[in-house]
């Protein structure tokens, strides 16, 4: 998750990046362009072409839960019924960046619910950008809200979100549901699958924090409670600090005969979120492509060759 160690890692990343930029006498765009070229030269998972964008309709919605009323951003193609996806934002919460990401996923043929995980204390946006989380005031504001997110509460919320989605005319209830989580949302995607095992068929975790812990209900120990296929994209600095997590996740997948993909990406924690200071467009596109491939196969019944 976005803790002090992550911030320390990112500070070192910024320092190295700035030194490289000054030494080259180039702007940020040129620097990122050269990094992208190097990254694409590495051995990577294949990238799947995105389908043409569909026009979408969006609105803020309110969803009853056992703990109150959750606000969320709901976006779906203008016509027809489509598989649903629950999107769990990172630690900074639901904000314009995640609405934009939800819009993009919806345009690929999904009914997407981007949720405000902090609804018990505040409506979204709690913070307007990821940069606010890095401030002292932003951390102080969020900490009580973070403390509310105990596992059983998240699972109750997930069950409420699935029930709400199944009642929407834009959702194809014949299709399984997907869930994608970023940073602290990574474990939430796992808990969504465990809470609604009969409905959730695919989950994706991007630089998810706390996927492997000593707790009895650690996300990696929930795989015996669901049948969802998994995409687990791990940040390089997270892997460097806890290299055993990848092995534990793979071992749990094998022990429970769960299909999926686990990969360490050459990018910093937070690289997939578009307003993150360490957003990496090349590696974010790779991760996004893998998610679309998985959702297309499991939720839409498509194959990569199609």
Automatic annotation (TrEMBL):
Pfam families: DLH. Residues 71-297 form the Dienelactone hydrolase domain. Keywords: Hydrolase. GO terms for molecular function: hydrolase activity. The keyword Hydrolase applies. InterPro entries: AB_hydrolase_fold, Dienelactn_hydro, Dienelactone_hydrolase-like. The keyword Transmembrane does not apply. This is Dienelactone hydrolase family protein. It comes from Sphingomonas lacunae.
